[in-house]
Amino acid sequence: MALLEMHDICKSFSGVYANDHINLTVEKGEIHALLGENGAGKTTLVNILFGIYAPDSGSISWKGQPVSFSSPRDAIAAGIGMVQQHFSLVRRMTVLDNIILNLRDNRFILDRKSARARVVQLAEKYGLHVDPDAMVGDLSVGEQQRVEILKALYRDVELLILDEPTGVLTPQETAQFFDVLRVLRREGYGIIIITHRMSEIMAISDRVTILRDGKQAAVLQTSETTPGELSRHMIGRELKEGYDMDQPAGEQVLLELEHVSLPVRRRGHALHDINLQLHQGEILGIAGVEGNGQKELAELIVGIQKAAQGTITLHGTSVGHSSVAQRYQQGIVYISEDRLQDSLVVDMDITDNLMLRDYHRAPYAKKGLLNRRAMVQAAQALMERFQVRASGVSGAATPVRLLSGGNQQKLIVAREVTDRAQVVVASQPTRGLDIGATEFVRERLVEQRNQGKGVLLISADLEEILALSDRIAVLFGGRIVGILTREQATVEQIGLLMGGITQKEEAHHGAQ
Amino acid sequence: MLDEIFTLSFLTVFLAAAVRLAIPLMYGGLGELIAERAGILNIGMEGVMLSGAFFSFAGAWYFHSTAMGLLCGMLGGLVVSLVHGVLTIRLAKDQSVSGLALNMLMLGVTSFLFKLMSDGQTYQQVDTMPEIAFPVLSKIPVIGEAFFQRDLLSYLLYVLILASVLFFRFTNCGLNLIAVGEYPRAAESAGVPVHRYQWAAMVCNGVLGGIGGAYLVLVQLGVFTENMISGRGYIALAAVILGRYTPVGVFGSALLFGVANALQIRLQTIGVSISPYLLAMLPYVVTLLAMLGAAGKNSQPESMGKPYIRGVR
Amino acid sequence: MVLSERKRGILDGVTIAVVTLLVSTILILACKANPLEAFGLFVKGVFGTPASFAEVFVKACPLMLTGLGCAVAFRTGFFNIGAEGQFYVGAIAATMVALGLPQVPGVVRMVLCFVAAFLCGGIWAFLAALLKTKFNISEIIVTIMLNYIVISFLGYAVRGFLMDPAGNVPQSAKLDESVQLPNLITSTRFHVGILIAFVLVVLVWFVLEKTTLGFEFKAVGLNRRGAGCNGIPVVRSIVLSAVLSGGLAATAGAIEVLAIQKKLLEGISANCGYTAVLIALVAFNRPLGVVIASLVYAAMQVGAGSMQRQLGVPSAIVNIIIGVVVVLILGRELLQWYQRSKKQA
Q1: Can you give the pTM of this predicted structure?
Q2: What is the distance in angstroms between the Cα of C250 and the nearest Cα belonging to chain A?
């Protein structure tokens, strides 16, 4: 008897099928991978299982009994735990309080003493070391993930759902994490792991269910398949190999950071003594696990934050004290990782969003007076050129809130990547986009490079970095721990650097 | 003059006045604290208290009973908070806008109903609650009279403050409530019914704010006048910020406002030659300075003021 | 039944109007008055004579300016609840200039009154903007505290340095005629200040809709962080909108003193600074909307005044109605009967 059977699950959102007749079976002591691109329906499926959405049709049986969960509470009570991609932890509560939050067998008065003892014991057993009295907000991402797993184990789950658990981990942390999963498998837990990383699926899972466009593409035994086969089922075509880089990167330095530092602030990451050179006609990739100072680095260059020490020069002149607007004027443009918050004003229309940078310049404004007609005309031209599609009839007057993620990103690219651009700072530029939009954005970046401009590509996606960059710098703990050329770079080497192990230390370890 | 200020009897009277003036703020502040801890900002506290004041007066007048007055005051406050709940929890609307609209609405409603009630008569008064001296404790010099020679509602408040400290620190529900205000999605995924907690918090908000308003009528004045809360609801909001979102903090900062207000009144009665109108600014200036002092130390619940909608990231 | 947003807006408007009418009928019945008679008096009270109709504009004038001020501040997300205090700051400043510079000729002094009022009101609002942008302190509470402070100060002023030396009532001396704003229509109170208000409405509309400054205000109000990341001067926008907002409310105070009261005394705002917040909300922060909402509100006040005089229906009914309207606008989903019937079908 299977631990979990989901049968013929259908769910649609405003007429579009997110799940179209999906089946999923998980046995005890099985690690079952759920593979698919963004938007393939993985998250919808597990949200249905977890009681967050109700399915339109289909049935779920749990340990042989038909069940229907109307809230996460029901699912947890039955023994299903989920670790979300964005952790469900309260930052300003202790680890212990997060773990015992709303336990079923909590009395009205909390018994923290015995709970603490049990947490320590569980942590020992599964190698999930973390201080129960620490504030969650002070922990590293890896530690927070351990708290999430402890939280689930404490609730006596029998099935654990892990949504993209390794996206934020270093390769080394990932290896440790997999050790924990193996112990859990041995203990008879069922595990669903959602991911799009082939190597991890091959390393850890027993079976794979692949979703594509809301449909079930295949169910395979991991031992009998290959990454190539997985990829074919997931994408339906092979990945595009390289990009058209017609000439080698230039020699002339375009942007230079020397000894740039930023102190720690509330909710931010520090940067220490950053030294970087970006050349003309070059894509410089910044690899690293998220939360090691990427966002701060981008914002320092663009001018949203100001460095405490060091100099930033463009074409040899200092821009470190210039405002965001001045730097844009000089050609530093920005595709931010947070489209909705940082790049767009989603309640304004397409025209206004395309004009956020240039609204005060001719021909859009003269002496402080706006020229609406010129704005709309320019916006329509840009929409056409960058294939921004607005649903509905309003065209350029459509609020940006109503656009798809891909169209929103195209809009940002259309606004930023203009003739004025000299340095393009692109942070996670393809995150959450479908294949078409991803290709479109990447091609624009390569195009900029080939025109002799500089591109700083910050991405947590190693494949993207390797495919596009001329050189690769690795950011760890707010420091640049290594810079490699594309030819030198290997996944292993970058992986080690992302985990903070530099060549020197490696040599040091070797000598011992 | 200074020696006049620092006599024991002066301090005793002064502190007693300060506590008396602070109690309504403490009730309002505690009610607001619970709501904000659950993520709901109720700027309509002014309206809640006004409603509590009016309906307690009406209840006490028609039923000739202080107890009925108190009950009506609680219900009056409750209704306002529940309307706020419908708009901000059920419909996820802007909490500031809703609160301000309710203040204006309640100003109109209470003035309107009071005019209907007082039709013809000019002056109406209800009985106020008696003072009950607490044995032993009330004999402590200076603070004894201020804190322990008071009315039932004051004693109830002390119990409520203590209970809420224990509630937040040691109970399952208290932990859940904090989680709801800090990060509702985390609470939901731990199975906490977020909206139900927010509704419960709004009930506390309304009842406590209602008592705060009723206190003015049933303990202090015995009468209702138009717009009689005159900003106390807003000061209660400031007390929550100053008190760093803790019950004891609210108690302390409400007391600070009480002290500022009592000082203003005392200085007038002993004939300090500053215009009473300049002294009347004191509590508000203190509030501003205190908020400036508390700036930068962020202890506001992270999700306060943001509507929580299930299933949306 | 799928409705376009426009049609839905009209249906909502009709529903809200009907509910509001219903509420007023109930309130009038509660006063044991005949609703038809009351509405009749209401209409007569508003349109009965040129003077009463002019009174609508007289009452709307301070609401229009304070409401406009709130709308400007709300555009950048600066929740200015301080129009009440800024109104008084303007009134005090205008009185001080009018009484304090008797040697300056009338028209020049009048202009100086307005300049002083606008500046002082702007500075008063600037304080709150400073605390918000520098220290991240809620402008809502700060502006309310500032209101109480200035109202106390006014009490002090009219009993102290501004008190009429010839009397013993808490009010200033009467302004001499040369600085008073003249009436435009004889036997009514329709004064030049009303024209000034309309001119300012048009000016503000122009700034908000047609200039780069208005564009900046809008972007900052809708996404403060995003605006900053795109190089829009966020702090400047918030501070400017606050100052402009305070200046407009203070102008209302100056007009009230120079055209209506002709002296400074307590309580002259009639709470219009708080009403203004709701007017701006009802108008969705649009200048034209502010004009309409102010006129409607003022008409209700005038009409309700005549109901109160003749039938004893308390004029607080007007406060109830605007409160109800805002609550209904917020809660309009609960009223969308035409959508619910769709679900049943």
Answers
A1: 0.84
A2: 26
